[in-house]
């Protein structure tokens, strides 16, 4: 039944996509570092003058009539000869968006990432940056085919029987078309646009320089770290082999969930600049056809989607970092499909556990623990106030739990507000935390499209509880022990040698003669124990407190000798 509903709409969606018009992509020589520096500097100067104009025309300076006001006006009048007059009359957030678009794909991508950073940027700016172009100029079909041949080193007729001349989409880095293999399988071809990789690498150097400058001016916002995270993510997106790896990792993580699907990768037809993957014949959750599904089907999809999101975030620590309705598919058989896997977030095991404890504490109503775990994730800047931040987060969590209507203030928005609150107390979060929050907020929105009144906290409580207790399951503990067994076995193998060396040290430092033979014996024994214990732990993993155990043991032995 589901397949009968989705197939016609999928065909309608494909047909409508053919009518979408795109501007042509102009392939130019990639500018050198110096030329790109001049262009970028010109726009930065224009943006600075635009900020002054915005403050004079729309900000607090517009109300001043002191000595500074005419000086600023004269400066602005002088600046109009060197800047775009049309842009100067716009509000600053609009100027910022327009200039990012003028600077090209790298800066458009930067703006899209910055639009997520509501924890460090004003809402007026993040809101405007959400309006950045999402359909960029397309490479003409002939050139697109040439790029496929260049990327795969094979003629097209040996791989594909048909490639659609009309693009399905065009973003800042790549362009996608439908195609069909010689075996008759429907696929998607994603191809990196010409010159993009070189442009990204050049811009990455300039953005790193900009980050250093901004770090001196605005250290409380950690701009250097934010921009470094951006360039790392963007350069990874330009290597389509990594997206292929991501898709296969997701598929392996969810191999026991038949209703959560990720595109199959065709490795024979993929490379660094070309990606061939399975075509999903489904519909988007915000489409009219999705609304025709039965209530039971829609509720099933929402519950399975919630299970997938919780599993990605808090069990695997490997999650889709660019979730929006366009990257989710409803597939025949009441299945959920995730596409566009170039941007992923990763939680290291320690961070994943803290975030799992945080989310679990929220959904069970433990505001104190939730605030404590979230505070441990944040990085205090100079002058940071972690205790005040923890109290504020705790108060917000309590208000959320007291709220009679969870839909007015969802858990995703609670987490977003808590993260945003960090800027007030100079507590900043890693990019992965922001991406996690976006994933939750996006899924809440999708859930409400399918099931009005959807409460992700209620739906995900069962799943996060399962993940929480699974980590203490004997099998999970055994797997963890097996992962660490090489280090443990190595430490055990070294133990006899370490004990022998420790005893030799004790013999060397123990007095040969003493009027009180038992004096200091207890301290010597205890010191030797500390020394041997520290040696064994040092063989497993070297950390500062283990070094301290060794030093303390030695100190006690030496003190006992002196006595």
TrEMBL record:
The keyword Transmembrane helix applies. Keywords: Kinase, Membrane, Transferase, Transmembrane, Transmembrane helix. The chain crosses the membrane at residues 544-560. Residues 132-372 form the ABC1 atypical kinase-like domain. One of its GO terms (molecular function) is kinase activity. Belongs to the protein kinase superfamily. ADCK protein kinase family. This is AarF/ABC1/UbiB kinase family protein. It comes from Acanthopleuribacter pedis.
């Amino acid at each position: 039944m589901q397949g009968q509903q989705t197939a016609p709409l999928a065909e309608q969606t494909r047909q409508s996509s053919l009518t979408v018009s795109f501007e042509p992509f102009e392939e130019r020589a990639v500018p050198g570092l110096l030329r790109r520096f001049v262009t970028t500097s010109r726009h930065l100067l224009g943006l600075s003058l635009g900020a002054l104009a915005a403050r004079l025309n729309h900000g607090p300076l517009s109300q001043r009539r002191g000595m500074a006001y005419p000086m600023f006006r004269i400066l602005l009048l002088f600046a109009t000869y060197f800047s775009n007059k049309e842009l100067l009359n716009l509000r600053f957030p609009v100027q910022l968006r327009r200039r990012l678009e003028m600077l090209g794909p790298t800066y458009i991508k930067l703006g899209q990432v910055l639009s997520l950073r509501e924890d460090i940027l004003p809402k007026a700016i993040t809101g405007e940056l959400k309006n950045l172009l999402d359909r960029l100029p397309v490479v003409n079909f002939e050139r697109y085919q040439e790029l496929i041949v260049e990327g795969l080193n094979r003629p097209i007729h040996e791989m594909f029987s048909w490639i659609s001349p009309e693009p399905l989409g065009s973003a800042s880095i790549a362009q996608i078309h439908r195609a069909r293999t010689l075996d008759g399988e429907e696929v998607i071809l994603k191809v990196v646009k010409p010159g993009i990789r070189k442009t990204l690498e050049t811009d990455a150097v300039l953005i790193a320089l900009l980050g250093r400058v901004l770090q001196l001016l605005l250290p409380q916002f950690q701009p250097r770290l934010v921009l470094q995270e951006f360039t790392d993510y963007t350069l990874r997106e330009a290597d389509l082999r990594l997206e292929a790896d991501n898709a296969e990792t997701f598929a392996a993580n969810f191999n026991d969930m038949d209703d959560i699907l990720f595109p199959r990768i065709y490795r024979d037809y993929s490379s660094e600049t070309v990606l061939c993957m399975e075509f999903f014949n489904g519909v988007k959750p915000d489409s009219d056809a999705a609304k025709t599904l039965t209530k039971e089907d829609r509720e099933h999809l929402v519950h399975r989607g919630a299970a997938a999101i919780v599993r990605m975030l808090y069990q695997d620590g490997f999650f889709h970092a660019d979730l929006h309705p366009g990257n989710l598919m409803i597939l025949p058989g009441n299945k959920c499909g995730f596409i566009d896997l170039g941007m992923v977030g990763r939680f290291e095991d320690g961070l994943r556990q803290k975030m799992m404890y945080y989310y679990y504490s929220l959904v069970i109503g433990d505001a104190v623990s939730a605030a404590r775990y979230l505070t441990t994730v944040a990085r205090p800047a100079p002058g940071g106030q972690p205790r005040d931040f923890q109290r504020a987060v705790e108060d917000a969590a309590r208000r959320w739990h007291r709220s009679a209507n969870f839909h007015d203030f969802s858990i995703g928005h609670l987490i977003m507000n808590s993260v945003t609150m960090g800027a007030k107390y100079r507590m900043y979060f890693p990019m992965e935390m922001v991406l996690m929050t976006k994933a939750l907020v996006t899924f809440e929105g999708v859930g409400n499209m399918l099931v009005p009144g959807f409460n992700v906290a209620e739906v995900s409580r069962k799943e996060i509880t399962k993940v929480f207790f699974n980590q203490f399951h004997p099998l999970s503990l055994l797997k963890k022990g097996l992962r660490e067994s090489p280090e443990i076995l190595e430490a055990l193998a070294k133990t006899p040698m370490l004990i022998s060396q420790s005893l030799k040290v004790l013999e060397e430092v123990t007095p040969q003669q003493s009027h009180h033979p038992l004096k200091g014996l207890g301290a010597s024994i205890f010191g030797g124990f500390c020394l041997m214990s520290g040696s064994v732990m040092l063989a497993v993993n070297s950390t500062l407190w283990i070094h301290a155990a060794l030093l303390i043991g030695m100190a006690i032995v030496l003190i006992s000798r002196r006595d």
